[in-house]
Amino acid sequence: MLDVHSLFDDIVAHGYDAGGGIVVTTTFLTGGLFSADGFHASNIGYAIVAKEILDHLNATNGTNFDLDLAHTLFEPDVPVITTTGVRDPAAGPFGFSLSMWKELVRTNSFGDFETVFPRPGKRAKRLIER
Q1: Which of 73, 89, 107 is the last residue of a domain?
Q2: To bridge 91 with a disulfide, which of 49, 50, 51, 97 should be the other Cys (CB 3.0-4.6 Å)?
Q3: Contact by Cβ (8 Å): 78, 49
Q4: 102 and 60 share one domain
Q5: Which range marks the domain in which residue 104 is found?
Q6: What is the sign, positive or negative, of the torsion defined by CA atoms of 38, 39, 42, 46?
């Protein structure tokens, strides 16, 4: 039986050595293990779990499954469609157009777009009063 709980405890404490000097951690947004929502695993996180399952199967059953994490480590883990379901040609490198950002902000009750993303040179509005 694979102890996934212990695997994640170890990753929290030490990170996960993905090889080539790359260490994946649980640090929010930059660690690589979790997606941008901070709750669900990223593609890298899911690949690490899959690799650990395959390594466990190999050790216990004498199989020879292999999973190279390099493809997952170097592929962007971001959405590539807009709210209309069609890729916006004006979208930036991550596939998010200005209209998609505005829709995301509007539908998640973050406030108005200018409050969340002030124009360059403008001071951000205070979201919480002192």
Answers
A1: 73
A2: 97
A3: no
A4: no
A5: 78-130
A6: positive
